[in-house]
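Section 5: illustrative case.
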């Protein structure tokens, strides 16, 4: 009788697990770590309201819909970006890209990185100013919609990559550290066609403590 009870108990636990495994992971819109108007005038309240509240929310909703019925229903975001393709890859990439992007800012940035990341930037580009020039060149020369990323390889060497659409350095085996969004929705309300002006202004609101922790 005891054995039968144990078997029934195990079967019922297993069936509960099976049912719960059928439910897809539900990704959520991140909360901003600052007030919606805190980055103005570099990024206006209106741009944040649309970029975070509308664009990122849409990518989150699309991702939640697209993973249903795929092998990625229980996968974390990084795994989906590394292993998926096509429209699922681009939506998952956009959620990861924007989560990292919005966490990269604070109202009064430190201006420069410090510690290990600062050393690695100096080793690769000679100075922070040279890195800034190279990063802006990559960001402004990217044709169409996409991202410029500072990333590191598995040996800790820094690289700048240009990612089309929703791609992320994770897709090439790199660790993403800092991404500038060069989709027009990131700057058009505030800067219209002046992409370089927007990108140059971003340096003053970077949270290098957070960005450095990714290195
Ligand atoms: Mn964006």
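Designed sequence:
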């Amino acid at each position: 009788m005891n054995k039968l009870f144990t078997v029934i108990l195990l079967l019922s636990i297993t069936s509960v697990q099976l049912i719960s495994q059928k439910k897809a992971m539900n990704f959520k819109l991140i909360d901003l770590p600052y007030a919606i108007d805190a980055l103005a005038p570099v990024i206006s309240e209106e741009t944040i309201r649309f970029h975070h509240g509308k664009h990122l929310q849409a990518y989150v909703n699309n991702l939640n819909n697209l993973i249903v019925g795929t092998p990625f229903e229980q996968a974390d975001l990084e795994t989906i970006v590394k292993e998926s393709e096509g429209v699922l890859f681009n939506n998952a990439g956009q959620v990861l890209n924007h989560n990292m992007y919005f966490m990269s800012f604070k109202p009064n940035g430190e201006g420069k990185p410090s510690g290990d990341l600062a050393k690695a930037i100096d080793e690769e580009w000679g100075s922070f100013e040279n890195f800034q020039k190279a990063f802006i060149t990559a960001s402004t020369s990217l044709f169409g919609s996409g991202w410029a990323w500072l990333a590191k390889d598995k040996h800790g060497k820094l690289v700048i990559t240009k990612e089309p659409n929703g791609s992320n350095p994770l897709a090439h085996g790199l660790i993403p550290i800092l991404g500038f969004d060069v989709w027009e929705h990131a700057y058009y309300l505030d800067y219209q066609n002046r992409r370089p002006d927007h990108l140059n202004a971003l340096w003053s609101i970077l949270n290098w403590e957070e960005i450095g922790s990714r290195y």
